[in-house]
């Protein structure tokens, strides 16, 4: 593997950590462990959406006035040793009906470090050091950003949770405050990257919130990197019901204001019938696509078997995903 290769991944939710788990094994070796030079860490950068307002993150955001830690925590786990004690601690979620119920320990640690340092960015950096992870994780913004959506009927709704659950078609999403700033490190990473990976993840609530941060889409456009969209395996019951891969590309380009994607990586392996049936009952289906239509959009489609062997959930296989991404970037 080229030691100078730099990859930036953009997203949030549960999709981004899967990608990070795959890429870390190709970009870092056991002999690299604990190297701390900035150029080494910059081989793999994750830019993570900061608009989560549900669950433990939402409660901490409203009760302690901290930035939402959940997606950052998931990415830290994705880059850590999967079976390490610290990774298990970060995943631990309190049960019962007391004040800690539903909170994950990782979220609480990030909230505590944020208060100790008076800096969420320093909290993420400190926890990355404690975990001795390779790569770097950057919040999309350090401003208290709120996601808003204009629906097709002209009405407005606010908040990631509400948007994700909304059954009405979405016309566009916005970030408040308008002009929320990214980290300088994010822009620098994008401009120096050899590959920029968008997704997998929820279109309106994990991918677009990053691209709506002031200057991010422009930095992606300026970058000489190959820009790859990882197509979602499934539609979502409300947010992207009936969406095709082409719809995802169109919405991203409309929000950016220009063509942003060079390649789209699409799973072509068939779904197990029992999972297909179960997801259909929940209002989701395998994301359909038209190769020729994608080409007409100026995007290069790449089909591959990206499916995990997990028989409980439809998900990307981290290693297959990483292997096909790196093949595209050669």
**What is the CA–CA distance across the termini?**
10 Å
Identify the strand order in the major beta sheet. Answer: 3-2-1-7-8-9-10
Helix content: 40-55%
CATH topology: Rossmann fold
Order of helices and strands: EHHEHHHHHEEEHEHEHHEHEHHEH
> Overall 3D geometry?
globular
Unreliable runs: none
**CATH class descriptor name:** Alpha Beta
Q: What kind of sheet is the major sheet?
A: 7 strands, parallel
Number of strands: 10
Number of helices: 15
Strand content: 5-15%
* Reported CATH architecture: 3-Layer(aba) Sandwich
- Structural class of the secondary elements? alpha/beta
The fourth-level CATH homologous superfamily is CofD-like domains
Round the Cα radius of gyration to an integer and report it: 19 Å
List the helices and strands and how they pair.
Layout: E1 7-11, H1 15-27, H2 38-41, E2 44-48, H3 55-64, H4 70-79, H5 85-91, H6 105-117, H7 120-131, E3 136-139, E4 146-151, E5 156-158, H8 160-165, E6 170-176, H9 184-192, E7 195-198, H10 203-211, H11 216-222, E8 226-230, H12 245-256, E9 263-267, H13 273-281, H14 291-296, E10 300-304, H15 318-329
Parallel strand pairs: 1-2, 1-7, 2-3, 7-8, 8-9, 9-10
Antiparallel strand pairs: 4-5, 4-6
Helix pairs in contact: 1-4, 1-15, 4-5, 6-7, 9-11
